[in-house]
Design brief:
- The protein is α/β, with parallel strands linked by helices and 283 residues long.
- It is 44% helix and 18% strand.
- A hairpin with a 2-residue loop joins strand 1 and strand 2.
- The radius of gyration is 20 Å and the shape is globular.
């Protein structure tokens, strides 16, 4: 594994670094400079990633939840240990200012640690006739996660941490506009997670479409535009795949007469900015 955040980038499949026959370019949006060449996963490589996740699932899901929690917390520790490099790379590939990068990386660390404290206790209900109904939450299998360009690290962690604590394994695809931090995260976590538990593949619209239709992916978790969300819902319906769609859009805000508009305007702006997931139509 390379320690250089700003040089080579490889996908992670079954705990190993993987390149590809074809690549695409990653740009600095501020300068439009090409800052890296990125692997473009083939369909065969996606199948290999899904197969690795499926193979890892039985042992991972059978692992005591306390151990899964500890490893998810360690993901946060790993991000924190490389926080400066993540922030610099995030600014280079996504364009957000230093303060925004600090907020995203620190938030990713906190999210891992807080999710690692959660457990999956059964819900027990006693009926009037004395019957006991017990509801247990069980892992589904392989989760396919597709993240957008605006918060590439934080939104990846929002998907990774709960899925892994619950006992699922994952194939993660970042936006083709911001793949670098996610690829580097996958690289670092090869030393944290068992092989196959987290696989990271990169590519564009075609790769996303393959994921949503893949018969061995049990669930798709997607954050992005409404237009793409419709496509994912349609594609996932072929095998009744479970889906979670966090799509773009803004809720209306009503400012009542007793509130000064100028005082509340900034808060309304930031709520709108955080709740809108961009207009990236690529999977």
């Amino acid at each position: 594994m390379t320690n250089d955040f700003f040089a080579s980038y490889t996908m992670t499949i079954n705990g190993e670094g993987v390149s590809s026959a074809t690549e695409f370019e990653a740009f600095n949006p501020a300068t439009e400079e090409v800052i890296a060449r990125v692997p473009q996963a083939s369909r065969v490589q996606l199948d290999e990633a899904v197969s690795a996740a499926r193979t890892a699932f039985p042992l991972w899901s059978a692992r005591p939840i306390a151990e899964r929690q500890a490893l998810v917390a360690k993901i946060g520790d790993t991000i924190e240990a490389h926080a400066e490099d993540f922030m610099r790379l995030l600014t280079r590939e996504q364009g957000k200012a230093r303060a925004g990068a600090e907020w995203e990386i620190a938030g990713s660390v906190i999210w891992c640690r807080e999710i690692a404290k959660q457990s999956l206790l059964p819900h027990i209900k006693t009926e009037p006739d004395g019957r006991i109904i017990e509801t247990r939450r069980v892992p589904l299998g392989v989760v396919g996660a597709i993240t957008p360009w605006n918060f590439p690290v934080l939104l990846a962690i929002w998907k990774i941490a709960p899925a892994l604590v619950a006992g699922n394994t994952m194939v993660l695809k970042p936006s083709p506009y911001t793949p670098l931090c996610t690829l580097k995260l996958g690289e670092l976590l090869r030393d944290v997670l068992p092989p196959g538990v987290l696989n990271v593949v990169s590519g564009g619209n075609e790769l996303g479409a393959w994921m949503t239709a893949h018969p061995d992916i049990a669930k798709i978790s997607f954050t992005g535009s409404t237009a793409t969300g419709r496509k994912i819902m349609e594609s996932s319906s072929v095998n009744l795949k479970r889906i979670t769609l966090e799509l773009g859009g803004n809720d209306p805000a009503i400012v009542l007469p007793d509130v000064e508009p100028k005082e509340i305007a900034k808060d309304l702006f930031w709520v709108s900015a955080v709740s809108t997931n961009g207009t990236d139509l690529r999977l």
